[in-house]
Amino acid sequence: MPTTASASASASGVAKKKTKKASAASDGGSGSATHEAVRGLLSKIPIADRKSVKIGDAHFDISQFVELHPGGAIDVEDGDDLTPRFLAAHGKDWGLLRRDEIVPVTKDGKTETGRKKEEEHHLANYGGKGGSWREIVGRHSWFLIHSIAAKFPEYPTEADRVAITGFITALGQLYPCKLCRKHLQQQLRDPELGPVAMDSRTDLTMWICKLHNIVNKDIGKPLFNCNPLELDLMYLKNCGECEVVKKGEKETDASAKSGFHPTSGPWDALLYLQDPLLLAAAKSSTDVFEIKRKVGLIEAAKKLRLPKKQIELLNKAIRGPGGKALASKLQKAIAKSSKVFKDEIKSDLAKLKKK
Ligand SMILES: Cc1cc2nc3c(=O)[nH]c(=O)nc-3n(C[C@H](O)[C@H](O)[C@H](O)COP(=O)(O)OP(=O)(O)OC[C@H]3O[C@@H](n4cnc5c(N)ncnc54)[C@H](O)[C@@H]3O)c2cc1C
Q: What pLDDT, on the 0 to 100 scale, is given for residue 44?
């Protein structure tokens, strides 16, 4: 298990190259020469005068950054806990801590350990080295699982929720190591873990961390310090080359990108889940909308226990030439049956409400 400082330090090492531009931008547009000069001056501050602060569960030397803070110089004392100030000013935008002038350090802040470790590419050392097939699959799987959580939307849609539930379900059902899968099925039932937390990106990263820790505990590995900052430093990586359209680039350049596949229509996770062939037939968002509406009507007809043969007939006809009129008719019929259903349980519902 990496210590807070080493994980942060090495994560920062990865981010170092990528933050060059952002750092240069923070000199207020006065040019990189000024920026370099200021950095040069600040780097001469003796170690004893450095400002080492706590943010979240990690520690940073920010003596080179206090004057460069884009909102004006910040007033801090060595040893301050800046967590409340950071959260109030930037929320959980932990990525802001990844810049040249903010150096992850150990708890005492005065050692150079953090600076040395900063140079390491922590991902190259992710997990143990080598090992059995079970360990290699495990390590790579965890990396993917944590990375998916790190990039999960802050405000997930229904499709995002369905997708992440499906992903975790697939692990429980299909994880390639039979023994691990058997254990995982029980770990996923653990009341302490609870159902997949997917109200936000942070909730999901913490939930996955908790799941990983349950596995760690069961196989006798050390537990990881689950906190959002630590997890983001480890797994929330930017990938410039993964951008679909970069700034100043034309959409038409898309075919030059690695792995380009010609576009044949929109993506819709929920429709794909219901029927991949129907999604493949949709050429536009309007098609997707119409197809989903028809699929929904057929599903409702199934729930009304129409005979299988009739369902098949309706399914075919609703996609044929008279499909639109048939869909309207079906919709009305389903609305009527819904009303009958509601009337039937009205009195029971009223009784339940009184209780
Ligand atoms: C779903 C699943 C179930 C598994 N079940 C079993 C099993 O039943 N029996 C078995 O022997 N092996 C199981 N494994 C494999 C096992 O979890 C390890 O992946 C494997 O033993 C290799 O261990 P490692 O030391 O490389 O670290 P890993 O556990 O693979 O972790 C990789 C790296 O992730 C980081 N990390 C550790 N814990 C956390 C955490 N909680 N949150 C975030 N990051 C963390 C650490 O930096 C660590 O080095 C399972 C793997 C998966 C994905």
A: 63
